[in-house]
Amino acid sequence: MGVILEVKNLTKKFGGLTAVNDFSFEIERGEFIGLIGPNGAGKTTIFNLLTGFEKPNAGSIRFDGINITGMSPYKIVNLGIARTFQLVRSFKFLTILDNVSVSCLSPRGKKVSKDIGTEEYASSILTAVGLVDKARIPPIVLPHGDLRKLQIGKAVGTNPQLLLLDEPFSGLSHEEQLGITDLINKLHDDGVTIFMTGHVLRELMTLVPRVLAMHQGKLIADGPPREVAGHKIVLEAYLGRGEGFA
Ligand SMILES: Nc1ncnc2c1ncn2[C@@H]1O[C@H](COP(=O)(O)OP(=O)(O)OP(=O)(O)O)[C@@H](O)[C@H]1O
Ligand SMILES: [Mg+2]
Question: Can you give the pTM of this predicted structure?
Answer without folding.
Answer: 0.94
